[in-house]
Amino acid sequence: MEIEVTVQSQKEFDDAIQRYIESGYELESNTDGTAVLRKKGFKLWIFIVLLLFVIIGAILYYFLSDDNVVVLKRVSNSNHYYCRECGVSLTDDAKFCPKCGAPINWEDENDVSAQVTDDNAFKI
Prior knowledge:
Elements: H1 10-22, E1 26-31, E2 34-38, H2 44-64, E3 81-83, E4 89-90, E5 116-118, E6 121-123
Antiparallel strand pairs: 1-2, 3-4, 3-6, 5-6
């Protein structure tokens, strides 16, 4: 949008330039009694359109994006043992815990009723 302002004297001209600069305009040129001042205006409709694009994009992203699903299953394994001290998984032939170093004493592995094989290992 272009606005043309006409003034009669140099003082009015200088005062008008000063008023426009104070209201946010920038002086681009001032030659031969013609001053060009420019102000970037905020256009609400552009903001609304951009906001709608962002909202529509977010909705599309939500409905069209892939879901990442992780399924964890605990499988009961009668031969799986864990350290009583720190809870780390033990191999069947471990004599010491690989994490905390606690000694592991195994009783009869075929005895399913023996849930606790020592104070240092337990069966799941």
